[in-house]
Design brief:
The protein is mostly helical and 345 residues long. It is 58% helix and 7% strand. The strands form 2 sheets. The chain has a 3-stranded antiparallel sheet with strand order 4-3-5. A two-stranded antiparallel ribbon has the order 1-2. Strand 3 and strand 4 form a beta hairpin. Helix 5 runs antiparallel to helix 8. The radius of gyration is 41 Å and the shape is elongated. 11% of the residues are buried.
């Protein structure tokens, strides 16, 4: 008892402000330690941008340009035929400029990019900051990047299309041309080949890293990232199903229509509408095709029904197995109405 009482008397309770004093003493050291660890081990949450979404965005932009071009062509449908075809390159450049002006220039994504929940991000500014928490933040494109994007996509494609059409029209590739024109044609072909090879290499890099789907984006360091962290890829297949059904139906019609003979079908259906006995009661003086009195009457053999020469001749020439419109008998020959019944054609 004496030992316990002596130990209890020696352990005095701490002062009331001891915890507060210890907290104020240790909190600066803790903040310094956490700050040093965050600088030395800054973690970046990797977010992979779907490659399929980026390809779909490009495809949707192409479809949007085609739809706008189709509507614009309908406006000039009453103009001289072939006139709009001469300015097709200018029309494409104008539509691409409109899409760029009302999307990228005003810090908005293109229609296809917007549908895929994507946006352009300036990778140079992001690397200069050095603080990346996720793959979503980051500034948009600068004014210089927007202008260079317009020059490359709109102006570059227009100049290249006009240069190719001009060289083809002037026939620079012929061996009979001057050495300067021939050399320019070879240079154009080599530039095109180098561009295609570079595009193929860029495609391989894009499939491996998921960055910069085109050479223009890689040169400008403009990367497609998600616009919002919530991605709802809700694509309705209703219109796609309609398009597939219509394509299959049109292909079936293109396959079956040449096999069908309209005259044969009509004559076959006529058998069910009336019998042959009623055809004998009809007026034989009128041509069964044009329903007029034959000016140059001819008989269809062997049924001996009268036709106009031109009506019967055109039907027999168009349909080798033509059948008589009155009795549905095959017409094997034509005979002019004359005194000599043996005169045939």
């Amino acid at each position: 008892m004496s030992g316990s009482s002596s130990s209890g008397s020696n352990s005095r309770p701490p002062a009331e402000d001891a915890w507060v004093h210890a907290y104020k003493t240790l909190i600066p050291q803790w903040q310094h330690l956490s700050l040093s660890q965050s600088h030395s081990h800054q973690s970046i949450i990797p977010i992979s941008i779907s490659r399929v979404n980026q390809f779909d965005a490009a495809r949707l932009d192409v479809e949007m340009s085609a739809m706008l071009k189709e509507q614009l062509v309908k406006v000039f449908s009453l103009m001289k035929p072939g006139m709009l075809f001469q300015y097709e390159a200018e029309l494409d450049a104008f539509l691409e400029f409109l899409i760029w002006r009302f999307s990228i220039w005003v810090d908005k994504p293109t229609p296809g990019i917007s549908l895929m929940n994507l946006r352009y991000r300036d990778e140079r500014a992001l690397e200069a900051r050095g603080k990346v928490r996720t793959g979503l933040e980051g500034p948009g494109l600068t004014v210089a990047q927007k202008l260079w994007y317009c020059v490359a996509t709109v102006g570059g494609q227009y100049i290249w299309a006009r240069l190719q059409s001009f060289s083809a029209f002037r026939r620079w590739g012929d061996s009979e041309q001057r050495s300067l024109a021939r050399g320019a044609w070879i240079l154009i072909q080599r530039i095109e080949g180098l561009y295609k090879a570079a595009s193929f290499c860029n495609l391989l890099l894009f499939l491996y890293t998921g960055r910069y789907r085109t050479l223009i984006e890689r040169a400008l360091r403009a990367r497609l990232v998600y616009g919002s962290p919530i991605m709802n890829r809700a694509v309705s297949f209703e219109y796609m199903n309609r398009q597939l059904v219509w394509n299959e139906f049109s292909e079936m019609l293109l396959l079956l229509l040449p096999l069908l003979n309209s005259s044969s079908v009509k004559n076959f259906l006529r058998l069910f509408s009336k019998d042959k006995s009623s055809s004998s009661i009809e007026d034989d003086s009128a041509c069964p095709i044009c329903q007029a009195s034959p000016t140059v009457p001819f008989f269809a053999l062997p049924c001996q029904h009268r036709y106009c020469y031109y009506c019967l001749r055109t039907r027999c020439a168009a349909v080798p197995s033509f059948r008589c419109s009155r009795c549905n008998e095959p017409v094997v020959a034509m005979q002019r109405q004359a005194n000599n019944p043996n005169q045939k054609q």
